[in-house]
Amino acid sequence: MATRRFLLIYITTHSGHHRASAAIEHTLLRLDPHASVVAVDGFQYVSPLVRWAISRSYFSLIRHQPDVWEYLYDNPVVHRRVQHLRALLHRYQAGKLQRLLETVRPDVIACTQAYPCGIVADFKKHHHLSIPVVGILTDYAPHLYWFHDTVDLYVVPSEQVKQRFVISGVADHRVRVTGIPIDPRFLERHEPEVVARQFDLTLDQPIILIMGGGAGFGRIREIVLNLDGLPSRCQLVVLTGTNRPLMTWVQSQRFRHRVVPLSYTDEVHKLMEIATVLVSKPGGLTTSEALAKHLPLIIVNPIPGQEAYNARFLLSQGAAVQAWSPEAVRQTVRDLLDNPEQLQALRRRNAELSHPNAAFDIAKLLIELADRPQTGHPTPPVDPGPIHLREADRQ
To answer: Do 160 and 240 have their domain in common?
Structure first.
């Protein structure tokens, strides 16, 4: 049998889109060790100037003018007005993309972010490409930049998201509900005592895990200072990500409670195993990882747009609570710690909503697409049903 070839495209290292892509890559190679899987950052296919302008504008708006970003995000008027600019950018990137396709010769292209999905979808339309294109959503709501006629299959996190696609005119058979793909390590179980010792923690006091995404984004300093005022003994684990000033600040402070700062780490799955509660902005991957670990989530600092949608979804499903300010975090955490029944109810609801096998389900779909003849517009594969991992597969 010929080697299956997969091209995965994400945006930005240390992002949820990248983690989702890595989870799919890992799973594809587990299911087919002989496969060729190439994962690339879609920002490599724009000019350095455009890449700089996009990143700088996004982070500047999020930090200083979130109301402007909220207006721009998923706005149909803005979407229509930038169509011409997007077409110009996609034409500029077409040459690089064509060289990539000639090098990789993929049987399937899967994108975990809307921007590269749009580039590939437009290329497919104008160059009559027959390779199946799959859009993999990593948030609990789609925005307008996901919708393309030439995307063969959309993989979405929930039935509510599927209905948004169907209402917008996407055929039912082109949308599959699988959940958000997470690293298979989040399916593993660890001895809590061993994990606690690894991070110099103890299991006889609550462990509060504080996250701000890969970039350590948000008002984490204020959150830590407020939580340090909790009256009962507890432990704070602060993931600072790539935010070096935040790490330096935490290390320089003196706290009442034990505070463990960690920079970017690939062992979040272990920390979620022993944490009592998670305080975090509701990124799609972080949320899905917490659901898989049945970890109660307190939502703070949702970024307008995708994360605000995520927050609304989780709150509507009874899978999280929200603290509306850093000052409110302390009381929210205290209320949960004082109410074990509510903590347990959140854990049960998380278990019900979780899709821990999403990466395996998606990998199986991609393999089935790769095995289909690439003639004309490919038909989405038959639903293989849920995939249940054997214990040996989880090692």
So the answer is: no
> Going by DSSP bridges, is the β-strand pair 133-136/153-156 parallel, antiparallel, or unpaired?
parallel
What total of structural domains would you count in the chain?
Answer: 2
Query: Contact, 230 vs 331, CB < 8 A?
Result: no
Domain ranges, residue 134 = 5-182+356-394
The amino acid present at 30, given as its one-letter code, is R
Pair 361, 347 in one domain:
no
Could you list the mean pLDDT of each consecutive 10-residue stretch along the chain, which spans 395 residues? 92 85 96 96 68 57 54 57 60 77 95 90 87 95 87 96 93 96 93 95 96 79 95 95 90 94 90 96 94 96 85 94 92 95 95 95 97 58 39 34
Looking at the fold, whether 312 and 331 belong to one and the same domain comes out as yes
Q: Are residues 244 and 334 in the same domain?
A: yes
Is residue 377 domain-shared with residue 389, that is, in the same domain?
yes
Single out the residue of 135, 131, 104, 130 nearest to residue 118, CA to CA: 135
- Assess contact for 29 and 359: CB atoms under 8 A: no
CB atoms near residue 276 (< 10 Å) = 18
Query: Quick one: how many helices (H) and strands (E) in the chain?
Result: 16, 12
Q: Are residues 322 and 244 in the same domain?
A: yes
Q: Among 337, 353, 369, identify where a domain stops.
A: 353
Neighbours of 181 (CB within 10 A): 31
Kindly state whether residues 274 and 374 are assigned to the same domain.
Answer: no
Neighbour tally for 339: CB within 10 Å:
11
- State which amino acid sits at residue 8: L
Residue with structure tokens 């979808």? 121
Kindly give the residue spans of alpha helices, DSSP state H, lying in 278-393.
Answer: 284-292, 306-316, 326-337, 340-353, 358-370
Task: Compute the radius of gyration of the chain from its Cα atoms.
Answer: 21
CATH number reported for the structural domain that contains residue 89 in this entry: 3.40.50.2000
DSSP 46: S
In the Cβ-directed half-sphere of 135, how many Cα atoms lie within 13 Å? 30
Single out the residue of 352, 276, 340, 344 nearest to residue 314, CA to CA.
352
Element (H, E) at 236: strand 235-241
What predicted TM-score, i.e. pTM, was given to this entire model?
Answer: 0.83
